[in-house]
Amino acid sequence: MKTEGMTEDEINARHAEKMAKKKAARDKILATKTLQKGLLIVHTGKGKGKSTAAFGLVMRALGHGFRVGIVQFVKGRWETGERAILDKFADQVTIRTMGEGFTWETQDRQRDIAAARAAWEAAKEMFKDPAYRLVLLDELNIVLRYDYLDIQEVLQGLAERHPDNHVVITGRNAKDELIEAADLVTEMTMIKHPFRDGVKAQAGIEF
Amino acid sequence: MKTEGMTEDEINARHAEKMAKKKAARDKILATKTLQKGLLIVHTGKGKGKSTAAFGLVMRALGHGFRVGIVQFVKGRWETGERAILDKFADQVTIRTMGEGFTWETQDRQRDIAAARAAWEAAKEMFKDPAYRLVLLDELNIVLRYDYLDIQEVLQGLAERHPDNHVVITGRNAKDELIEAADLVTEMTMIKHPFRDGVKAQAGIEF
Q1: Same domain for B85 and B108?
Q2: Would you tell me the Gene Ontology cellular component terms (chains A, B) (predicted)?
Q3: Same domain assignment for residues A149 and A167
Q4: Interatomic CA distance for residues A41 and A169, integer angstroms
Q5: pLDDT of residue A32
Q6: What phi, psi does A54 have (nearest 5°)?
């Protein structure tokens, strides 16, 4: 805002006018948004915050009293901090941890494929049940990337879910077909990371 | 992975070899990360998930039993879902809501400046106290963008905080000076948004 030569009153008046216009524009847009449906949400990109934002959505849904399903395609992806919280909502949340570890830690492709298949079957069970207002498929993208599950089969399962179910899928390298099918896609981009400066993973931040 | 003409056993063997190399490289990198310090984290960009990921970090810290401080620079930014959860951790979390509403809803610049100043003073109180392992300054970036607070004053306050305190700052249009000072910066980019298709804000997803 260029304010040289303006009095404080003039700055305030111009600000009020500008904000009134913004509010009118925003209200007009909101009035056109009337549809309600289960959303397919994807968090991808190389930056941090994909699973953390999904965890935030889970907590928000739990706060509303909703039932939530979580399927972890990579074991150990969620750590002590999250587990301690989720344990407090055991009556609202169902967690299925099917992966056997990061794929680069197991080095056993057949076992990883079997785990991915079992996790996907657990997800499809949740899709049938309208009680699950939110289903989180954590790190499904990594499984799709390695072709442990067929993308077309996954898209079909998502399309056949109960129409009220919101689904959140996380993981870098989301497939184009998934992005195409999704309602809301956010890419987390890493601008700066403390690992570069030799800082180690810390409780409460990384796990 | 090009797998034409390979047997299933050959594919599995090559996969195991590739993953073993990845794991070795990753372990080597992790061994060099030994520093521990309070991080300055920024979530910016026009996409969704900035405050939601911060809320996820808050919940993770609460799961570890840490004390958490939250300063909301824009009132009403966090809604019923989050509040219902945070109320369950009232003994661990201190919330100071200082803003009077989205700036485009108040249209009163002087009142917004006073609210921003009060919020910043609350944040500085938390910075002095090592008990606050995590301090969230929600939507501080919007306040800095409108120059309601001076960026240099904010940077100085951040630099003077207790060295163990992690700080998370959210909001689009993070100032370059803040990005420069931060340890970890994630930009949330909107790839796709259901608003485009007329879908309204829904409980558990938007609030």
Answers
A1: yes
A2: cytoplasm
A3: yes
A4: 6
A5: 59
A6: -65, -40
Q: Is the predicted pLDDT of residue B103 greater than 60, yes or no?
A: no
What helix, strand, coil percent values describe chain A, rounded to 5? 45, 20, 35
Shortest alpha-carbon distance between residue A121 and chain B (Å) = 23
Q: How many structural domains is chain B composed of?
A: 2
Residue of B nearest to A87 (CA): B63
Contact A187 B191 (CB under 8 A): yes
Chain B CB within 8 Å of residue A85 CB: yes
* Edge-to-edge strand ranges of the sheet holding A184-192: A93-97, A67-72, A132-138, A166-170, A40-44, A184-192, B184-192, B40-44, B166-170, B132-138, B67-72, B93-97
With cut-offs at 50, 70 and 90, classify the pLDDT of residue B170: very high
Q: Please, are residues A26 and B201 in contact by the beta-carbon 8 Å criterion?
A: no
Q: Does residue A154 fall inside a structural domain?
A: yes
- As a whole number of angstroms, the distance between CA B192 and CA B126 comes to 37
Query: What is the nearest CA distance from A108 to chain B, expressed in angstroms?
Result: 6
Specify the residue for token string 């558990």: B204
B142–A contact, CB cutoff 8 A: no
Please check whether residues B72 and B102 belong to one and the same domain.
Answer: yes
Question: pLDDT by residue (tens digit) across B43-68?
Answer: 999 988 899 999 999 999 999 999 99
- CB of B181 within 8 Å of a chain A CB? The answer is no
| CATH at A145 | 3.40.50.300
Domain assignment of residue A9, given as a range:
1-34
Q: Does B75 lie in the same domain as B15?
A: no
- Whose CA is closest to B44, among B167, B151, B172? B172
Same domain, B20 and B40: no
Instruction: Say if residue B175's pLDDT is above 90.
Output: yes
- Phi (first) and psi of residue B190, to 5 degrees: -80, 115
- Residues A62, A14, single domain; the answer is no
